[in-house]
Amino acid sequence: MHDDELGYEISANILEESLIGYFKDVPVPLWWEQITVRGLVVSAILGCVFCLITHKLNLTVGVIPSLNVAAGLLGFFFVKSWTVFLSKLGIWSKPFTRQENTVIQTCVVACMGLAFSGGFGSYLLGMNGKSYAKLGPDYPGNRAEDVKDPSMGWMIAYLFTVSFLGIFSLVPLRQIMILKYKLTYPSGTATALLINSFHTVQGADIAEKQVACLGKFFGGSFLWSLFKWFWSGIGDSCGFDNFPILGLKAYANTFYFDFSMTYIGVGMICPHIVNCSVLLGAIISWGIMWPLISTQEGKWFPANLPSSDFGGLYGYKVFIAIALVLGDGLYNFLKISVITLQAIYHQTRNDQHLPVKDSILGEVAEEISQEEKQRNKVFLEEGVPFWVAGSGYVALACISMTVIPQMFPAVRWYYVLGAYILAPVLAFCNAYGCGLTDWSLGTTYGKLGLFVFAGWAGSNGGVMAGLVGCGVMMSIVSTAADLMQDFRTGYLTLSSPRSMFISQLAGTVMGCITAPLTFWLFWTSFDVGNPEGEYKAPYGVLFRTMAIVGVEGLSTLPPHCLELCCIFFVAAFVINIIRDTAPKNVSAYIPIPMAMAIPFYIGAYFAIDMFLGTVILFFWQRLSKQADVYAPAVASGLICGDGIWSVPSAALSLAKINPPLCMMFESVKAEIEKYFQSPPPPPQ
What we know:
- This protein is mainly α and 684 residues long.
- It is 70% helix and 0% strand.
- The protein is built from 31 helices and no strands.
- The protein has helices at residues 12-19, 31-34, 37-60, 68-88, 98-117, 123-126, 129-135, 152-162, 165-169, 174-180, 186-198, 201-230, 248-252, 261-269, 272-294, 313-350, 359-363, 365-381, 386-407, 413-437, 442-457, 462-492, 497-525, 538-552, 561-581, 584-587, 593-602, 605-623, 627-644, 646-654, 666-677.
- The chain crosses the membrane at residues 39-57, 103-125, 152-173, 273-293, 313-334, 384-407, 413-432, 439-457, 463-484, 505-523, 561-578, 598-620.
C-alpha cells in the first residue's frame, strides 16, 4: 500500500507569506541553472538512502508512507549547509534557490519511486524460486518454467527498458492538465508550498529546527536498532522483535510489540484512520477468523499440513487478503474513472474549468494575479517539444519489444506492443484522477495488466507474462502520475518544465541503478522471503498467486475459500460505498478495506507498532500546536534511522558476525505449558 493521501501542515503565516508575492522581486534562473552538480550529488545520496528505506518497508510489511517531506527537508538542509560552510571559508558559491530545491526533490522522489514501482517487493519477487517453492511444485499452475531469480544484470536492464515510458507518455498533455484543467495535484501543491516556505526567512528558521529534530530521532532510532541487534542472537526467535509483551497466547497469534521504530514512524505519518483500519483488520483476521478456521482442520482441509501449504489455512490467508485488495482496488478504479469521465464531459461541453477548488489561491487571488501570470509564462516558455516526447516513446517501445522477449521468452513482442498502445490511455486516466483526488492507482492498473496478460498467454507461460505485464503497466502509469505531480510542484515554485523533465530523467537513471543495488544488499545479506524471518516479502507470493488465478481460474482455491473471498470482496465494495456516501463526520470513522487487508496475510505485530505511532501523534496534537510542524520530522527520523541500520546490519551478516546475545521466552513458555498440563501436587 503506497500512501499518496498525506497532506502537509504548514504554518499559516509562512503559507500566506509565500503566496502573497514574497518572491515577486526574485529573478527566476534559467532552466539549465536550476540543474546543478551539487544538486545531482545530493539527489544521488538521498536517493540511495530512501531506496534503502523503501526496500526495508517493502520487504517487511509493504506499507510505504509518503517521504516527500523528508526528501525536501534534507535536500534543503544539505545544500544550504554546504553554501553556508563555503561562505564561512570565504569561498563564493551559487545561491541556493527554490528551483534547485524543487529539482532535487523531483530527482529524489523519481529515484526512490523505482524501489516501489520496480516490483522489488511485489511482481519481481513473484518470479523468483522462493515464491515458487512456497506454493510448491504440486500446486496447480505453478510451473518451474515460470521462475526467474533476481540478478543485478537483468534487473538493471529491465528497469532501463520500462521505466522511462511513463515520463514520455504524457509530456505533451502537461499544459492541458496544469493550465487548462487546473488540476490541483494536492501532494504536488503541498510539496511546492513546503519548498516555498523553506526559502522565506521564517520558513528557513523552522526548517532548521525540523532538521535538528529529525537528526535527534534519526540518531536515537539508529542506536536503538544497534542495541536490539546485540540481543537478536542466531535465528529468528531471539531479541526484542519477538517480545511477547501481550502474553504468550497473543504472541502465538502474532499480537506482540516488536519495538520497531520504523512502523511507529509510519504510524505517525499515516492518517489515523489508516492505522486504525490496519489494527481492525488484524483483530478480524488473526484474532477471530484464523483461530476459527483452524478449528476446521481435518474437515475443510487436511490435518497436519505445513504452515505454508496453500491447501490449508495459509491458502485462506492469502486468497481472502487478495479478495479484499481486489475489491478495494476495483471500486476505486471505477470511482476515479467515473469522476474523470464526468469532469472531462463537463469540460468539453461547457468549456469551463473543472470544478477543482483551490481555496488558498482563491482567497488571495488579487494579490497573486501577477505572480500567476509569471508562472504561466515560465511554464509555457520552457517546455519539452512534442517531437521529443513522441519519438522518445516510440523508440523506447521498439527497444522494449526487442529486449523484454529476450529476457522473458514467455512474453511475446505483441504483448509488449499491446501494453504500450494501451498504457498512455491508462496513464492519462491515472494522472487525471490523481490530480482530482490525490489517489494514484498504479498498483491497481498493474494488477489489471497482470490478469489481462496472464489470461492472454494462457497456461504456456501465462504466469510469467502476467507478472511482466503487471510491471510494465505499473511502471508507466505510476511514473506518469508522478511526473504530473512534479509539473504542478514546478509550476508553483516557478521551476522550468524542462528542468523538471530532465531531473525526472536523471532521477530515473539513478533509480535504475540504485534500486537494484540496494535491493541486492538485502537479497544477499538476509533471508528474504522466509515467512518466519524479518524480511518476509509477503507480496511476492500474493502476486504469483494472482497470476496463477489469472491462468487457472478459481479452481485452485481450498474448500469454502471462494465463498469467503466473495463475502470479503463484496464487503470491500460496500464499505467503500458507505465511506463515500456517508456524511464527512461519519465517514472519517469508517475503516479502509485496503488497509484492513494488509495484516490478513502478514500478521498483527506491525499493526501494534503503527497504532502506537498514531496514539502518540493523537495526544501530541492535543497537547501542542507544534505537533503538525514537527511530527513529520520526528517520524522521518525514526524511519530513516532504522532504515540506515540495514547497511551495517547487512555488512555484519556478510562478514558472518553474529549477535553475542539471545533473548527468548521459550523456557518460560515451556514452564507455563508444563504447569497447566501436570496434575496439581498432593496436599501436605
